[in-house]
Design brief:
321 residues, globular
Length: 321
């Protein structure tokens, strides 16, 4: 557990909400939720529980947070002693699409922490896929990780140089239909998108939707049986508890595998799209940008993570949720 995580956990207790604490801390809700889960796994007991009045500490969580408060005060004293001109320890803002962040945030942070020397914290900024390039061009960040369809990738490569951006394809993903294992479509090898018009769709705001694919766009935007959720975890809960279906990327489907127990959900490849069901995971970097040591460590950690990941769908299907 990193020292700044004590501050994050205390902010959750103050706000009685992970989403509110994430906004104040300038973190994504996915990243903060991952930090909570990792802390609870390390402690081997739950720190928080959900109630109608918000997120509150458990009995053991309260004892832990009292100790964390003391540690956090000492940590803040140490931070005040640091040289404010030490640029190497300034946070790194990293733009990342939600469909990747939900899977990678915790493990990437662990890899980065193992390699990092100066301790510059990572700030995962969840950003809609097609907004990452423009925001990097505007100077919001020097590193981004996003999805492109094949059509989007061809277009982006054509304009990347004039935007002073470099794009590297580092992995390949696909769209899947996520559903409960007892769903009538769960035994299919593939599912045509037109078969989903009569299904209740759990839709995630700001998730990857190719506007060039009109059939996919209409299914998610204009479908009266579409129900919107603010993040991928909520959509997956709706799939599990309300027997809905969700169209998600492989990384999003296979993330958070043990949250509800084994063999709860199944992901089936999606077919019938106007373009080939291929998504390229792309690392974006700024040309003519002198990368800090911590940024170089982050980039190395990203490449290492995806080298070790293997192809999607995985040869041995992991348990979903």
């Amino acid at each position: 557990m990193r020292l700044e995580h004590f501050h994050y956990l205390l902010e959750i207790e103050r706000q009685k909400s992970i989403s509110s604490a994430a906004r104040i801390l300038h973190l994504s809700q996915t990243t903060l939720s991952s930090i909570v889960k990792a802390a609870e796994a390390e402690l081997n007991f739950p720190i928080f529980k959900r109630t109608p009045n918000g997120v509150i500490a458990t009995a053991r969580g309260r004892d832990f947070l009292l100790l964390a408060q003391d540690l956090n005060l000492e940590y803040e004293k140490i931070l005040h002693m640091k040289n404010e001109d030490n640029v190497s320890a300034h946070p790194i803002s990293f733009l990342i699409t939600p469909g990747i962040n939900v899977s990678i945030a915790l493990k990437l942070t662990q890899k980065y922490d193992q390699k990092s020397i100066n301790g510059a914290p990572l700030i995962f900024v969840e950003t809609p896929p097609l907004e990452i390039g423009p925001k990097m061009k505007a100077g919001k960040a020097a590193i981004g990780l996003t999805y492109f369809s094949l059509e989007e990738l061809r277009f982006f490569k054509a304009v990347a140089e004039e935007s002073n951006l470099y794009v590297d394809q580092i992995h390949e993903d696909h769209f899947f239909v996520l559903m409960r294992r007892d769903h009538m479509l769960a035994e299919r090898k593939t599912i045509d998108i037109r078969e989903l018009y009569q299904e209740n769709i759990a839709y995630v705001a700001d998730f990857h939707i190719s506007r060039g694919n009109q059939m996919f766009y209409a299914l998610n935007i204009n479908n009266p049986r579409r129900f919107s959720y603010s993040n991928i975890q909520q959509a997956k809960c709706a799939v599990l508890k309300q027997n809905m279906v969700a169209i998600l990327t492989g990384l999003a489907c296979y993330a958070d595998q043990s949250f509800y127990g084994e063999d709860a959900l199944k992901a089936v490849p999606l077919s019938g799209l106007a373009e080939e069901n291929i998504l390229k995971v792309c690392l974006l970097r700024k040309h003519n940008h002198v990368e800090r040591a911590a940024e170089q460590v982050l980039i190395e950690s990203i490449y290492e993570y995806f080298r070790q990941l293997g192809p999607i769908p995985f040869k041995e299907e992991p348990n979903l949720l």
